Every structure is written in structure tokens, then in C-alpha cells.
Amino acid sequence: MKAIILDGYGTLVQVTRKRYPYRHIENMERMSKHFFYGWVMTRNLTHEKVLAAFQVPEALAQRSIVKMNQELASVQPYPEALDFLSQLDEQGIPWRILSNLAAPYCKPLTDALGITDDRCFFSCRERILKPYPEFFDLAVRSLGLSANEILMVGDSKRADVEGALYAGMQAFHLRRPEMDLWQALEHFKALRRAEPARHSAPEPGL
After folding, report:
1. Which residues pair with 13 in a beta bridge?
2. Which DSSP string corresponds to 53-71?
């Protein structure tokens, strides 16, 4: 493993006050929840523009905007997240963030982590979602490494783990609150050590 790609929400940061700002749209529109979230997370639109696109009545729209602002204000890094990224930098281990996100959630993530977005790939900007391998490929190419040299860590088994494996990467399912990022990395390394002898030689990186 020479680099790490991490999911955003549920992996590095968390919403500590969930207000469900899209619920009014979900309830009002006769569409599947899967379709709606796929739509909103592949368009770089403000919350106000999403509400306008679905012609949400003014009273409901204002309520939704308040809930969105409250939810975004509650975004916090997990306790070990800042130190984890700092340690990767200190050890010269490249990292990227790859996340399925609606546009309003991008800046709160980078603000919470104290980073710029130059190492981030967000579905709303790239207009593609995990688990599609093409989305993973964007981050892989930015690292200049082969996919099998990169570890993906995320809290979604389907989007993060199955998607990464299909893209040819290594992957580990982060199961919070049972483990944090450090423990996830140790579990992954232990699994690697338990594999056949072809993996017994030391690898560069973590």
C-alpha cells in the first residue's frame, strides 16, 4: 500500500445534528429515494437551486433551508481524523478524499478538516458516483500509482469497498463506532499479514 483514498462523511467527518433537509422533497416527489439522491449528488447545485428545480413551495423551501444550515453547521471531524491525515503527510503517504456528496456538503467537510479541496473528488463536481469504477479512477490517476497499490477506506460496504475492489484497489470497511481510522488500518495490516506468503515481504508506506 503506497497511498490511501478515504471517504468523507462517516469516515473523516460526521454530522452531529441531523436535520434531514431533503425530506420535504423526498415526501413531495413521486420518485424513488435512490433516484433523488443520485440526482442531487451528481449536480453542482446550491440547496436553493435544488429546491427551485423541484418547485418546492416557499414555506417548505424556507424550512428546508433552515434545516440545511443547521445540519451543515454541525459537521465535525471524528476525534482522530485530523491527526490521521497529519501523520500520513508526515510519513509521505499520499491521500485523497473521494465522496458522494451534494454540493452544500463539500465546504463544511474541507473546513472541518482544515484542508483545501485540491485533494478531494466530489461526486457533485465530477458528475459520477461511487461505486462506479470511473469515479475511483479519477483519484487513482491523480496519485500516479497503480490501483492495486492504493487502499480505499470508507464506511459504505457497497459504495466504498465493493466499488474500490471492482476498480482494482485494495479496500477496508470502516465500521464506526466499533473502530476508528487507526484501528481500521491495523485491522487491514493484520489481514494482509495473514494472507499467503506472496505478501510476506515488507511493502513501502504504512
Report:
1. 9, 77
2. HTT--HHHHHHHHHHHHHH
